[in-house]
């Protein structure tokens, strides 16, 4: 019976075998700001020592898994490029170490050098921004297609992101032809300039979008006191706009106001799984993890999996933690962090939605757990300290039988098959070879995506489904007859592959 259902579904999908064409350039709106929080957190992590291979992250855009190439991994900045969604995210690292503290306390107002009449800026922030100026501008100048550019960061990183967004709006947007739009999203960002700077920034506010998040604790208002806010954003300088306030009651309120500044509390308040990491090698490692509330890890699988973990709190007063397991996205949606309870679920939730792997402890622990079912596994590491975030806590988690990204298609070629009015009919052909180690979900089907762009413009995307056993694929497409087009193909089995080789079409001839 199950076999028949699979066959019917397969035939149905092949009959549909849809070919969807839509423009992929979309602005990331407020409900997607978890993406910027995630990248504002990743930039704190140790820099990669592997300089011989390209680095990628797979992060969803509104539920669609996208490849983000790390085109700069600098001590202060990471830049993430999603070529097929026309998005470029510049993430500035916040305070981390003594030199950054020195930058923070250089609070003396100094003349703003970005444009005339822009008032005064925090001396340390402006100085730090210009130390990154050349390397950032070189990346922007090297772009080969239009991008929506987002500057983001936490704390000091947010201050640098705002200065960069202002600078690029005033001085670079008209000069650099591939800057399509400019945006700034910050978390716990301190004020960067005086009132004159704020007024100048507001003068240009119609030319870029700016969202600033601040955590606060409304519980103090119950006691007749003013709500406590993250104290870092407030200083002798002024903010140009009101913040988007995030009530910590949604997650967990700290005992001291400074706790409102932790990045993982911001992440918990803006979490949206449709903009979260969607693929990895399912091997996670943290060193000296800074967890205020919890950290979750997702791994897609297609059959039983063995999960292994090793947790090592260190120091005189080792961190307390607990570890939870969820076997589906629906079960994970029922999770609600509670400091006093291991792996707490929302009220009225089925208690079988979670499994407690490690109860609250400060001991070194290793575990192995076999999971017999579940397409998506979530492991949650909880901070169980009474007051503070974890600070000397290291661990690693691995999954077996994870769904790995497929190999990219090869030997892509394009030929013109018809000319009609103002359109060209082209035949796109390529080879696909399924490697033995790749594990497939969706009944052994592959989604192929053909990305097509007129040179210097945005990408459009065509999708269709084939069996994973099909080794040679050809598809007919109609495109406008108006220029040179670049074409590339990816394969997707739940995670999108790297791109194939590029092919080009011009008029009625194929270019290599």
Automatic annotation (TrEMBL):
Keyword Protein transport: no
A biological process term (GO) from this entry: lipid metabolic process
Keyword DNA-binding appears in the UniProt entry: no
Span of the signal peptide: 1-25
Pfam families documented for this protein: Lipase_3
Stretches assigned to the Fungal lipase-type domain: 89-206
Entry keyword set: Signal
Name of the protein in its database record: Fungal lipase-type domain-containing protein
Record lineage: Eukaryota, Amoebozoa, Evosea, Eumycetozoa, Dictyostelia
């Amino acid at each position: 019976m199950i076999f028949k259902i699979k066959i019917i579904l397969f035939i149905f999908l092949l009959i549909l075998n849809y070919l969807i064409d839509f423009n992929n350039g979309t602005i990331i709106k407020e409900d997607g700001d978890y993406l910027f929080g995630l990248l504002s957190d990743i930039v704190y992590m140790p820099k990669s020592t592997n300089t011989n291979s390209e680095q990628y992250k797979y992060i969803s855009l509104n539920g669609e898994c996208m490849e983000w190439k790390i085109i700069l991994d600098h001590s202060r900045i990471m830049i993430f490029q999603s070529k097929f969604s026309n998005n470029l995210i510049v993430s500035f690292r916040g305070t981390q170490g003594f030199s950054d503290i020195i930058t923070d306390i250089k609070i003396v107002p100094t003349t703003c050098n970005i444009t005339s009449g822009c008032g005064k800026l925090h001396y340390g922030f402006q100085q730090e921004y210009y130390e990154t100026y050349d390397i950032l501008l070189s990346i922007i100048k090297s772009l080969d297609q239009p991008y929506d550019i987002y500057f983001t960061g936490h704390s000091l990183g947010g201050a640098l992101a705002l200065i960069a967004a202002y600078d690029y709006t005033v001085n670079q947007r008209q000069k650099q032809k591939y800057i399509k739009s400019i945006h700034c999203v910050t978390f716990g960002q301190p004020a960067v300039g005086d009132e004159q700077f704020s007024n100048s920034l507001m003068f240009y506010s119609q030319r870029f979008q700016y969202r600033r998040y601040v955590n606060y604790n409304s519980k103090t208002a119950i006691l007749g006191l003013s709500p406590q806010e993250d104290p870092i954003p407030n200083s002798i300088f002024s903010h140009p706009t009101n913040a988007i306030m995030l009530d910590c009651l949604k997650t967990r309120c700290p005992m001291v106001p400074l706790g409102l500044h932790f990045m993982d509390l911001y992440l918990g308040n803006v979490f949206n799984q449709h903009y979260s990491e969607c693929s990895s090698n399912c091997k996670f490692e943290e060193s000296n993890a800074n967890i205020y509330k919890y950290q979750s890890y997702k791994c897609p699988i297609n059959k039983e999996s063995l999960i292994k973990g090793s947790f090592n709190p260190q120091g005189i007063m080792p961190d307390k933690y607990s570890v939870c397991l969820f076997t589906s996205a629906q079960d994970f949606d029922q999770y609600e962090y509670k400091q006093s309870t291991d792996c707490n679920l929302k009220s009225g939730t089925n208690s079988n939605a979670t499994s407690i792997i490690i109860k609250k402890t400060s001991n070194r622990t290793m575990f192995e757990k076999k999971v017999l079912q579940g397409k998506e596994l979530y492991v949650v590491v909880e901070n169980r300290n009474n007051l503070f975030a974890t600070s000397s806590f290291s661990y690693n988690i691995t999954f077996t039988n994870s769904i790995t990204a497929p190999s990219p298609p090869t030997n892509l070629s394009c030929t013109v098959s018809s000319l009609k009015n103002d359109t060209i009919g082209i035949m796109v052909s390529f080879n696909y070879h399924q490697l033995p180690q790749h594990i497939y979900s969706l009944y052994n089907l592959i989604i192929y995506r053909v990305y097509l762009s007129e040179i210097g413009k945005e990408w459009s995307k065509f999708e269709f489904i084939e069996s994973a056993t099909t080794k040679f694929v050809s598809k007919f497409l109609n495109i406008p007859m108006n220029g040179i087009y670049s074409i590339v193909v990816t394969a997707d089995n739940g995670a999108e592959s790297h791109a194939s080789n590029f092919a080009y079409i011009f008029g009625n001839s194929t270019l290599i």
